[in-house]
Design a protein that fits this description.
By secondary structure, the protein is of the alpha+beta class. It contains twelve helices and 18 strands. A hairpin with a 4-residue loop joins strand 5 and strand 6. Helix 2 runs antiparallel to helix 7 and helix 3 crosses helix 6. Bound molecules: the ligand Nc1nc2c(c(=O)[nH]1)N[C@H]1C(S)=C(S)[C@@H](COP(=O)(O)O)O[C@H]1N2 and molybdenum atom (MO). The ligand Nc1nc2c(c(=O)[nH]1)N[C@H]1C(S)=C(S)[C@@H](COP(=O)(O)O)O[C@H]1N2 binds next to loops. Keywords: Membrane, Transmembrane, Transmembrane helix.
């Protein structure tokens, strides 16, 4: 078949041109992301455009939206965010492709604009230390823009007018071939990039594997035998690492090489500034403590609370060696700002850290080095304070300053400067909308008021009187405490409500409050139907 016959037979129409343009746009977008992913593997996984833009979006998310996302997607919120970004990019890619059919050069240049956005996001992330972080976005965009230009050049000539450039005729086979090659190359590059990014941080993995935690000088007392109630459905007293909740802003979990890790302690009223290595920490006296950690974003009855056996060094001892004095002893700094390798900042009252409680730089969690998700190699913990004001993961810097002089990450986003954990209780069993049989039904759960301790838990059926629940043995006042209540259940719908009283005598408040600014308040209720 001659070229003329071919052209005459295909009768290229506007629809073909536009849909092929849209397809070209999509392919260009895929190619751009794939190349970016590949380059990010060489530069830094966090420098990839989707992760960088996602991180920037997280930093700018209004509190209400963040709360909504955590409520609806839980720990999957980050996945949902990244899928959302990809969906938006796909729409823009389709539109750019259609636009490029008429304006080939401008369309291709449009892809580059997205590269600039990605590069700006990547280089302005708080953990970005080098302009090379722009490379994934820039090179990806150049690849995508180039591909779009090339593919558009293979589309059918406009139906009327406009002279054809040589070699520009509509050749379906050549377009399909180019498109297929582009798609396959993108898929390959993307897959390799993903795999490399996922396998990254080998030094960190090796450094973790090589850690042999020395026995702590100060052991945690054994968990009392009665701390765990024998009722099915109640959370285990010690939360296994794999089940421990995770809340952070990191789209890519930092992989820190413990042998290269350093912690600097400095700031106002630090006459003896210090920089410590991981081995420096391990050579110090280690303490082992059970501490229950809670997130300020935990709704009443929510899952963002966990209890683990931690090993670490006493933070107050280290600060004292550096010459730090708490405000009550005339020290100039009332805020300790912890910084992580990914740019998180967490501000803690110096007074709380140095008042005798077991504030620590933790290196171990439930008998192993910290998992990467939970802050390897070192994180901070302060019993009694919500995580966002105390529990900096992947910590690398401690600065002594004042609350007047500096607002940490979440404080800039409307959360309270100081946030002791509120007295709370949760019904673990029966589950909401359960259908237990009439007769003896065990109601049980957990209550917490870290660093004050739980003294009483009461259960109420419907609008009946408050009845004392049986308290399980207390481990320490820094841990949660389990409770149970033997209910003689009668047929029909019932509402079970729980409330706790802490050791200061304060009764958990009925008043329902939102998580913002300093933690949710109110009673947890569960509705069941007894059959
Ligand atoms: N570097 C860093 N540390 C962080 C956070 C974070 O986003 N980044 N989140 C804090 C919050 S809000 C909580 S509740 C705890 C959660 O610790 P976990 O993920 O180990 O349960 O970590 C704290 N430390
Ligand atoms: Mo949190």
């Amino acid at each position: 078949m001659s070229d003329e016959e071919n052209a005459a037979r295909t009768k290229p129409g506007t629809i073909t041109r536009l849909s092929s343009g849209a397809l070209s746009g999509l392919l260009a977008g895929c190619a751009a992301l794939a190349v970016a992913e590949l380059v990010a593997a060489a530069v830094r996984p966090q420098a990839g455009p989707v992760v960088a833009v996602g991180g920037a979006a997280i930093d700018r998310t209004p509190v209400a939206v963040k709360d909504w996302a955590i409520r609806n997607f839980g720990t999957d919120d980050k996945l949902v965010l990244q899928l959302g970004i990809l969906a938006v990019l796909a729409l823009f890619a389709l539109a750019l492709g259609v636009f490029a059919v008429r304006h080939r050069r401008t369309g291709a240049a449009g892809v580059v604009v997205f590269g600039v956005i990605g590069a700006a996001a990547a280089t302005s992330r708080p953990d970005s230390t080098s302009v090379t972080d722009a490379l994934p976005s820039v090179l990806g965009a150049l690849a995508g823009g180039g591909l779009l230009y090339l593919l558009i050049g293979r589309l059918p000539a406009p139906p009327r007018g406009a002279a054809r450039e040589p070699g520009q005729g509509w050749d379906r086979r050549r377009f399909v071939l180019a498109a297929t090659v582009a798609a396959a190359a993108s898929a390959g590059a993307g897959a390799v990039g993903r795999a490399l990014n996922g396998a990254g941080g080998q030094e960190a993995v090796t450094s973790r594997r090589n850690i042999d935690l020395p026995p702590p000088a100060s052991r945690a007392p054994a968990v009392p035998r009665g701390a765990q109630v024998r009722v099915a459905g109640v959370s285990p007293f010690i939360t296994p690492n794999a089940d421990f909740y995770r809340v952070d802003t990191a789209l890519v979990v930092p992989k820190v090489d413990a042998t290269a890790w350093r912690l600097r302690v400095h700031g106002d009223g630090v006459p003896r500034e210090r920089t410590l290595t991981f081995d420096d920490l391990l050579r110090r006296e280690l303490i082992e403590r059970d501490i229950t950690l809670t997130c300020v974003s935990n709704e009443v009855g929510g899952p963002y609370v966990g209890n683990a056996r931690w090993i670490g060094v006493r933070l107050a001892d280290l600060l004292e060696e550096c010459g730090v004095r708490p405000p009550s002893q005339g020290g100039p700094a009332d805020q300790l700002v912890a910084r992580s390798v990914d740019g998180m900042t967490i501000g803690t009252p110096v007074e709380d850290v140095m008042d005798g409680r077991d504030a620590m730089l933790a290196v171990g969690m439930n008998g192993e080095p910290l998992p990467f998700d939970h802050g390897f190699p070192v994180r901070m913990l302060v019993p009694g304070l919500y995580g966002y004001v105390s529990a900096c993961k992947w910590i690398e810097d401690i600065e002594l300053t004042t609350f007047d002089a500096y607002d940490a990450y979440w404080v800039k986003r409307d959360w309270a400067r100081e946030a002791p954990i509120k007295t709370q209780s949760r019904i673990d069993t029966p589950k909401p909308f359960a259908r237990p049989k009439a007769g003896a039904v065990m109601v049980a759960g957990v209550a917490w008021a870290q660093h004050r301790g739980i003294d009483k838990v009461e259960v109420r059926v419907d609008d009946g009187p408050w009845q004392a629940a049986a308290l399980a043995a207390e481990d320490t006042r820094d841990t949660w405490r389990q409770w149970s209540y033997a209910w003689q259940a009668t047929e029909g719908g019932h509402t079970l409500t729980v409330r706790a009283t802490d050791r200061t005598g304060e009764v958990q408040t009925e008043k329902r409050t939102r998580t913002v600014p300093d933690g949710a308040g109110g009673w947890h209720s569960v509705v069941v139907t007894v059959e």
